[in-house]
Design a protein that fits this description.
Largest sheet: 2 strands, antiparallel
Shape: globular
Strand content: under 5%
Number of domains: 1
Number of helices: 13
Oligomer: single chain
Helix content: over 70%
Keywords: Membrane, Transmembrane, Transmembrane helix
Protein name: UPF0104 family protein
Length: 357
């Protein structure tokens, strides 16, 4: 039996591999979501959607926007916590906030967050002496924060309101409660594993090792993930139609499951996947009202932050690559140091313009 399993493992690694399996799973999730979305949107009246959009009060949208801001403020502590965990204490909070915000927003909107978000993090942290391995550790610990927070809230929600999950996964309430218990048991086992170590636990080998937070610090890690998720779910809850009534915990369970499906698909902005999941899980609401809610949420949580993140990165690159080198060369010329002809030309042009004026 052991030989058979070993042989199957070798065949899997040689001909399939986890990377190919992940790609296939993503394609299947996206395909299923698009099919469900198209089927759900059949017969939807566009005029009713526009009416539903105008029914949202400025107070509703304003409060949801404040929750989104709270979510992104909490998000900045993902990288800050990770930096402190790996011992990079010289990186200030403002840089951690910049990296966390831009890498998450741009990476999530473009898809393949591991690669796009990792590239942005490396571009920012390399200026502070961090290596690619350091950035990989930050990505790992930030991802761990996300998953711990999601699993904790999902576990409580599925135990408390299993019917909310049943609308999406079509499983009996008892099975969903068992899944919720498994989530909480897994987190508890992780805490016990951390607490029983003689020193801080490590993961990895062959020169790539990440030191995990202590059990006490992991409580902070879970709290960061829970608060972030709570703000996001609250923003969606505030935008929901007033009738029929749905409680916050039930919506949070649906929201988390839809979010996790979106992340698993690696689709840009979870487009289609998140929306289809929300529509399928909330059949008691008119489809036009849910679509209007999702449109506003996408603008607040995806489109506006995406534009802000791109603008920040563009201005930063312009400053570091153009403005700052030019200022340094100009300062060197003023201090009496010779400058290359190509670098000195812009300075001479500015001086000539000043003399003419």
């Amino acid at each position: 039996m052991h030989r058979l399993l070993s042989a199957l493992g070798r065949v899997f690694k040689t001909y399939v591999g986890w990377k190919r399996l992940g790609i296939v799973a993503s394609i299947l999730i996206i395909g299923f979501a698009i099919t469900s979305l198209i089927r759900t949107l059949k017969g939807v009246d566009h005029n009713v959607i526009l009416t539903a959009l105008t029914d949202k009060s400025p107070a509703q949208i304003g409060l949801a926007a404040l929750c989104v801001i709270g979510a992104f403020c909490t998000l900045t502590f993902y990288d800050f916590f990770a930096l402190r965990t790996i011992g990079k204490l010289h990186v200030p909070y403002r840089i951690a906030a910049l990296s966390s915000f831009t890498s998450y927003v741009i990476g999530h909107n473009l898809g393949a967050t591991v690669f796009t978000g990792g590239a942005i993090r490396f571009r920012i942290y390399s200026d502070y002496g961090l290596s690619a391995i350091d950035v990989a550790k930050i990505c790992f610990i930030s991802g761990l924060t996300f998953w711990l927070g999601n699993l904790f809230v999902l576990g409580i929600g599925m135990i408390w309101h299993p019917a909310a999950a049943s609308a999406m996964d079509l499983l009996p309430d008892q099975v969903n409660q068992l899944i919720g218990l498994a989530c909480l048991a897994g987190i508890a086992a992780y805490f016990v594993w951390l607490a029983t170590g003689k020193k801080r636990r490590e993961l990895g080998q062959n020169g790539w090792k990440v030191v995990l937070p202590s059990a006490k610090l992991t409580l902070v890690q879970v709290l960061i993930g829970v608060v972030d998720l709570g703000f996001c779910a609250l923003a969606m809850y505030l935008l929901m139609p007033s009738e029929p009534y749905i409680d916050y915990v039930s919506l949070a369970v649906v929201f988390i499951l839809a979010t996790l499906l979106g992340f698993a698909s690696h689709a840009p902005g979870s487009l289609g996947v998140f929306d289809a999941a929300m529509l399928v899980a909330l059949p008691m609401f008119p489809r036009e009202d849910i679509i209007a809610t999702l449109l506003i949420y996408r603008v607040l949580y995806f489109l506006l932050p995406f534009g802000i993140a791109i603008s920040i990165m563009g201005i930063r690159e312009l400053w570091l690559s153009v403005v700052k080198p030019w200022q340094e060369k100009r300062a060197a010329a003023v201090n009496g140091h010779p400058m290359p002809a190509a670098a000195a030309a812009p300075v001479r042009q500015v001086a000539q313009r000043s003399q003419k004026r």
